[in-house]
TrEMBL record, chain A:
Name of the protein: Polar amino acid transport system permease protein
Example of a GO MF term: transmembrane transporter activity
Localization, UniProt: Cell inner membrane; Cell membrane
NCBIfam families: HEQRo_perm_3TM
Primary localization: membrane
CC annotations in GO: ATP-binding cassette (ABC) transporter complex
Membrane topology category: Multi-pass membrane protein
Transmembrane feature ranges: 17-41, 62-81, 184-204
GO biological process entries: amino acid transport
Pfam families: BPD_transp_1
From TrEMBL, chain B:
Annotated GO MF terms: ABC-type amino acid transporter activity; ATP binding; ATP hydrolysis activity
Domain ABC transporter: 11-245
UniProt keyword Methyltransferase, yes or no: no
Membrane-related topology note: Peripheral membrane protein
Source species, domain of life: Bacteria
Major site of localization recorded for this protein: membrane
Job of this protein: Involved in beta-(1-->2)glucan export. Transmembrane domains (TMD) form a pore in the inner membrane and the ATP-binding domain (NBD) is responsible for energy generation.
Lineage, highest ranks first: Bacteria, Pseudomonadati, Pseudomonadota, Alphaproteobacteria, Hyphomicrobiales
Entry-linked InterPro entries: AAA+_ATPase (IPR003593), ABC_ATPase_HisP-typ (IPR030679), ABC_transporter-like_ATP-bd (IPR003439), ABC_transporter-like_CS (IPR017871), MetN_ABC_transporter-like (IPR050086), P-loop_NTPase (IPR027417)
Keyword field: Amino-acid transport, ATP-binding, Cell membrane, Membrane, Nucleotide-binding, Transport
Xref: PANTHER family: AMINO ACID IMPORT ATP-BINDING PROTEIN, GLUTAMATE_ASPARTATE IMPORT ATP-BINDING PROTEIN GLTL
Protein name as it appears in the record: Polar amino acid transport system ATP-binding protein
Length: 222, 251
């Protein structure tokens, strides 16, 4: 190619940005579902379940996402499973996000005051009923700000999926740069695009936290 | 201690033992509560009275002894906790209303979820129990919009909606100022007059004297002195004499 940055390059970068958003959404939904299970497993009455989920969280949190992505892509290929970059990136990010969200949400569930559990128990609600009708509605309110905050991390971390050949914003930038050799201009565009995706979420998270701060009395056992 | 079924106590503790680590909190506690009786558990902080009460509803597991509540063997590991807690209502010092639900929803939650009551019927019930505690107008309010005394009365109403056979009160007025305490005590008095079986841990000596059929004074994990309310005015042990003395100074 060569030449100057033109509308086609920008379209290509735009497409990459859309995939960044797409991958973030996949990671958030997949990681959210698995993370919710992890959160429940972390506070399970069964010790073996608690132990297994804690081990999972420790393993993932102690491993760089880059390594998880390589393992997902090349590891699965090595054992004969041919996976597309999208599948590998989605699976890796899901596992990664699940560990963090699971841990964030476990904390939120446990920060609902213990007397709330006891009051629900005293009313003869089953463990599931206590969880669904009493604890989770309160935990979700506590969990919203840190969860939105973590979404910013997910968006930025999807850039690592470029290493397995998934063409998201970062990778599309590299490809454009390979033909134009204008790294500063192109990576500046990419940085601004990431910022434009993350900053509104950061703002939203801060606003939620302020609102939660005001309403904290609602959550205290009074 | 064999008794025939008609006079079987609603709650009976026999030689109950409970330790938290090396600390022996209950050291051979025995007492019984008959149907319609109001029993007040009194004693200093750390005497084991709250633990004894919590053992009745199995919020604490006992290390030894026997607890029978409405026919449930609470000391056994296989006790049906949900059946037990349908028979036993408990009200806590910190009210523990569910902050995300209105008062009506707080009250209807358990009857609907546990007893499978229809929503309309549960709502009627909510109005009825709220009327009992004088809070009909707060049906659609959230707990945070209520005063402490109102929250505690709502918590009592929530418990009543499950139609328990015995009610446990764990220092329910300790977080309230005197004026609010009075409105809560009035509600409990009315319950007693209606014949509700009750066990209450309380620091309100005047109230205990007025309402309790029997007093259990606990001291260092043991039942130190027990008898009718009159033991508060003429205690036989020096410990109760001293305790009542300091209690009177407070009130």
């Amino acid at each position: 190619m060569g030449g100057h940055l033109n509308i086609n390059h920008l379209m290509f970068l735009g497409q990459g940005a859309l995939w960044t958003i797409g991958l973030s959404v996949i990671a958030l939904i997949g990681g959210g579902i698995v993370g919710f299970i992890i959160a429940l497993a972390r506070i399970s009455p069964l010790k073996s379940v608690r132990l297994a989920s804690a081990t999972y969280v420790q393993l993932v949190q102690g491993t760089p996402l880059l390594v998880i992505l390589f393992l997902g892509y090349f590891g699965l290929a090595a054992i004969g499973l041919k996976v597309s970059p999208l599948t590998a990136a989605s699976a890796s990010l899901t596992l990664y996000v699940a560990a963090y969200l699971g841990e964030i949400w476990r904390g939120c569930i446990q920060s609902v005051p213990k007397p709330q559990w006891e009051a629900a128990e005293g009313l003869a609600l089953s463990r599931t009923q206590r969880m669904i009708k009493v604890i989770l509605p309160q935990a979700i309110r506590i969990a919203t700000p840190p969860t939105v905050g973590f979404m910013v991390q997910i968006i930025k971390n999807t850039s690592l999926a470029s290493v397995v050949g998934f063409v998201e914003l970062m990778r599309s930038g590299q490809i454009v740069n390979n033909s134009l050799f204008e790294p500063f201009a192109i990576y500046a565009i990419i940085a601004v695009t990431y910022f434009a995706m993350c900053y509104p979420l950061s703002l939203f998270s801060q606003r939620l936290e302020r609102r939660m701060g005001r309403g904290r009395s609602n959550l205290a056992p009074a | 201690m064999q008794q025939n079924s008609s006079s079987e106590p609603i709650v009976s503790l026999r030689n109950v033992q409970k330790s938290f680590g090396p600390l022996r909190v209950l050291d051979g506690v025995s007492f019984a509560v008959e149907r319609g009786e109001v029993l007040a558990l009194i004693g200093r902080s750390g005497s084991g009275k709250s633990t004894a009460l919590r053992c009745i509803d199995r919020f604490e597991k006992v290390d030894g002894g026997e607890i029978v509540v409405c026919g449930h063997r609470v000391d056994r590991p296989d006790v049906d906790l949900r059946a037990l807690r349908q028979d036993v209502g408990i009200v806590f010092q910190s009210y523990n209303l569910f902050p995300h639900l209105t008062i009506e929803q707080n009250i209807t939650l358990a009857p609907c979820a546990v007893k499978g009551m229809a929503t309309a019927q549960a709502r009627d019930l909510a109005r009825k129990v709220l009327a009992q505690v004088g809070l009909e107008e707060k049906l659609h309010a959230y707990p945070e919009q209520l005063s402490g005394g109102q929250q505690q009365r709502a918590a009592i109403a929530r418990s009543l909606a499950m139609q328990p056979k015995v009610m446990l009160f764990d220092e329910v007025t300790s977080a309230l100022d005197p004026e609010l305490t009075a409105e809560v005590l009035k509600v409990i008095e009315q319950l007693a007059a209606d014949g509700m079986t009750m066990v209450m841990v309380t620091h309100e000596m005047g109230f205990a004297k007025g309402i309790a059929d029997r007093i259990v004074f606990m001291h260092r994990g043991k039942v130190h002195e027990t008898g009718p309310a009159s033991i508060l005015t003429s205690p036989t042990t020096p410990e109760l004499t001293q305790f009542v003395g300091t209690g009177n100074l407070k009130s």
